[in-house]
Automatic annotation (TrEMBL):
Residues 64-351 form the Beta-lactamase-related domain. It comes from the Bacteria. Keywords: Hydrolase. GO terms for molecular function: hydrolase activity. SUPFAM superfamilies: beta-lactamase/transpeptidase-like. This is Class C beta-lactamase-related serine hydrolase. It comes from Nocardioides eburneiflavus.
Length: 384
């Protein structure tokens, strides 16, 4: 969720239908013939208060450079809007929302018994012995507390973060670059946003399951009934940018968010252990609770298992990608809000204000679809 700047690779990414950008290579995650999400449009009455004043929904949509907005009430689409030239079949680059999709794949590997949180990274990926990841565990990269010497700095074209992203723009070898990540602090004692952790996490998941990121995502796509093709950016060796290059329709991003409620599909099929869904939604440490992360990221969210909890109890959480790609879910009410955006990065403080105002809007929209009087909350409901 780091800020970008003008001239960086992040600021130049194509966020709508990135598969049409000739500068990037992609693989397709095929859609299924599953049933479309139900739809029953209704007025959404809400106001968003922040940045010193109150505004209505339409003004918030425009002010935060929204490109799509989708609101679901227990699996039914009740509000759907797209910017001019975009629509239900547009694939929106999720940027770092991809990390939350990766978390689902890791959670499934843990649920299936292929992987354990205490597994050492080097056991699955011996190529990383002698690097900063030697001695770290799966849980350390999952919570971005690996302690490695890494700065998510896209201002410096020579930084490891810029060079990692460059592997996907220029056909490089992203996994060879991870060999250059050195040790920093003791694992589990400090949070630092780190896309390298996501790439290592996916490498471990791949070794444990025998499936590439795109193959595993194809399996998940089918099980969720995602209707449209998605695409994933890859480097010169065919390795996916599991930390940032999934593009999907707004409705399919919503399906990914719904799985975070309790680990089951809308039809009740369990894909993730209920305990995993609970743990993934909560801050992993006191210093990753909402309001305790570095303020340059946000004061509105914490960090769990590659998801961003919006409260200490893990009732609300969000997948967050650069330039305003957001998929929020209330696990008690099963309300979901997907907002994609394309705000500029001329000024990091402006970026911060758009993100803060977007978070406030997510809460307001989730509140707007709270159950009516007499309707129960659903978090913790027994599912098969």
């Amino acid at each position: 969720m780091p800020a970008s700047i003008v001239g960086s690779r992040l600021s130049g990414l194509r966020f709508s239908d990135p598969q049409d950008d000739p500068g990037w290579s992609h693989v397709v995650v095929p859609g299924t013939s599953g049933a479309a999400l139900a739809a029953a449009a209704r007025p959404i009455e809400t106001e968003i208060t922040g940045a010193g004043r109150t505004r209505g929904l339409d003004e918030w949509v425009e002010e935060t450079w929204t490109t799509s907005l989708l609101v679901l009430d227990r699996g039914t689409v009740v509000h759907e809007w797209y910017a001019d030239g975009l629509g239900p079949r547009t694939r929106f680059l999720g940027a770092s929302m991809t990390k939350s999709a990766l978390a689902h794949l890791v959670g499934r590997a843990v649920t299936d018994g292929d992987l354990a949180l205490d597994d050492l990274i080097r056991v699955h990926v011996p190529e990383l012995a002698g690097t900063g990841y030697d001695g770290t565990r799966v849980v350390d990269v999952l919570t971005m507390t690996s302690g490695v010497d890494w700065a998510e700095d896209h201002r410096d074209p020579g930084s490891l973060a810029s060079r990692l992203l460059g592997c996907f723009a220029d056909g490089g070898d992203s996994r060879a670059l991870l060999d250059h990540v050195g040790p920093g602090t003791v694992a589990g004692t400090r949070y630092a946003y780190c896309t390298a952790d996501s790439q290592v996490l996916d490498w471990v998941r791949e070794r444990a399951t025998g499936r590439t990121f795109s193959d595993d995502l194809t399996r998940l796509w089918a099980d969720l009934g995602c209707a449209d093709d998605a695409c994933v950016g890859i480097d010169g060796r065919g390795v996916a940018l599991a930390g940032g290059a999934l593009a999907a329709t707004a409705r399919d991003w919503a399906r990914l968010a719904m799985l975070a409620v309790d680990g089951t599909t809308p039809e009740g099929r369990r894909l993730l252990a209920g305990s995993w869904a609970d743990e993934a939604a909560r801050p992993a440490y006191p210093f990753t609770a909402p309001g305790r992360l570095p303020s340059t990221l946000t004061t509105h969210a914490g960090f769990g298992y590659h998801w961003w909890p919006l409260d200490a109890e893990g009732h609300r959480l969000v997948a967050d990608g650069s330039r305003g790609q957001l998929a929020a879910v209330d696990r008690r009410t099963r309300a979901v809000v997907v907002k994609t955006s394309r705000w500029p990065y001329d000024d990091p403080w402006v970026d911060r204000q758009y993100r803060d105002l977007s978070y406030l809007g997510l809460h307001a929209l989730l509140d707007a679809v709270e159950p009516r009087d007499g309707e129960p909350h659903t978090e913790g409901e027994a599912r098969p």
